[in-house]
Each structure stands twice: as structure tokens, then as C-alpha cells.
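Reopening this one. Same input as before:
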Amino acid sequence: MPSQVPVLEARHLVKRYGAEAAVDDVSFTVERGECFGLLGPNGAGKTTVLRMAHCSSPRTSGVLSVFGLDPDERPAEIKHRLGVVPQSDNLDDELSVGKNLEIYAGYFGLPRAGVQRRIRELIAFMSLEGREDAPIRELSGGLKRRLVIARALLNEPELVVLDEPTTGLDPQVRHLIWARLRELKTRGVTLLLTTHYMEEAHQLCDRLLVMDHGRILAEGRPRELVASRLPGHVLELPSASAPTALPTDTTCEIHGDLAYVYCRSPEALEPLAAAAGSDYRIRSTTLEDLFLKLTGRELRESD
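Same output, byte for byte:
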């Protein structure tokens, strides 16, 4: 494939369910070897984009290509070159770890002689040694998630699609998975992921979209997005202690019982903090601050 062809390209992509647009005029490209993230609250359209990308849901309109191929016209060719990590751990509970991998490998027609070698490699890669004969029902959530990722890598995919790969996992497992995903990137594997963890997006993503209600709100590199849209520092304090007078170039937002005072200079925040007493903190603004500013702080129902 020519190097100038993106691994994935969407132009004016639309997905409708009846009159409702789950994805509404979305355009982006994913280049070879990068990790591209889709962020957004529940119902933003992230998973719908992934489903169209891995040939599980046809688009309503617009242009979508994966490896330069149309997912609606050539799904088999595309699926042979990608791996999918779904939100749910859809493993076969009646089979062992090794048998789950062995049967899934059969879907790709991998040579029998190489299947066991590949399974051993992935067992080691995802730190699942000694679990080959364990039944799925005996595995913890973290072990199941690592197995689902190993399964997605059986066919040595060029693109791995990950839908919330570390949701509900403890920090140790999450960091292990992040390390393995970074290693895949060093091998030239392209990653497309959704996540609700802003730290995960910051750790892994070269570029990302922030979406809501099916539309793009922002796109760019994480650090550059934050720097371009928010001042560099924020003072958090109880809303009852929110300052009534603000220095120049300082803004204050009140959300529930907390107030957030944004400013480019941390020194300008110190007098405001001193007036608030001891219950405050001054910190750098983060991707989570930007996410909440763009999408709001109201609760959303689960997908």
C-alpha cells in the first residue's frame, strides 16, 4: 500500500438510526503507526465510528476507507488485516485460555504449524503464562481483558481497534496494557481507540477527536489541544470561597460545590488561594479540564 494512503480515512461520515444521527458529518484520518483516540461522553458516537471502521455496521452516507478499501464493499479483506478489542469480553466461557485462542486463529486460516508458536508468543506478550489451561470462568477481569487483546493480535494485524480497552481494570493491569500498546506502536501497528480515561488518552494518543452528539468538537494532539483552548493553570476551591473580583485574564467557573479559576500565570492565582484559606489546590490544566469544558459536566446515561 502506498505510504501516502492513510490507514483509515473518513470524510463527511454519517450514521443514522431512523431520524437520529449517531454520527453526523465526521471527517478525520488515521496515519500508519499512530495511536488515534476518540473521546466523548456516553452516546457521543465513538463506538458507532469504530463499528463502521471494522466492518460491523454500514454507514448511511459519506466516504470511509480502511487500508484504501471500502468497508461496505470489501469487508473480508479489511477484517483479515485488523484486530478488534470490543467493549465486552466476549470469550467462550466453556473453553480454556489456549482453546479460545486456537479456535479464533482458525477464523483467519493461519497455518496449523504456526498457530501454537503464535499463541505462545501472545501468552507471553500479555503476561498470561501458566494460564493456558485455565477455564475462562475462573479468570479475573484483568486476565480476561488481556486475553481479549491477545486474541485480537493473533493475525498480526496492521490496525488494532480498541473500544475502551481498560475500563474497570485496576491501575497495575491498566499500566501493563498501556505498555503493551506502546510496544505495538514501536512495531508499526496502528491503533484506533475509544476511552473514558483522560490519562489513558494522554499517555497513548498521538492525536485525538473529542466528540459529542455525533459531531466533532475538537481535534489535535493532546498537549496542543489543551494549550490552545485553556489557560495553563487552574485554582480549585470550594464554590463558597469563589472570588468575587478576578485579576485580568482570569476566569471563574462554578460547578456544584467547586469553583475553578483559570489563569495563565500561577502567581496570579496565589492571592486568590490565600484568601480562600487552606482548602484549595493550584494545578496545571489537563485534558480532562478540556473534555469537561467541551462536553459539559451533566451526567449521561450509559450507552
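So the earlier flakiness isn't reproducible anymore. For the record, The two ends are 36 Å apart (CA to CA).
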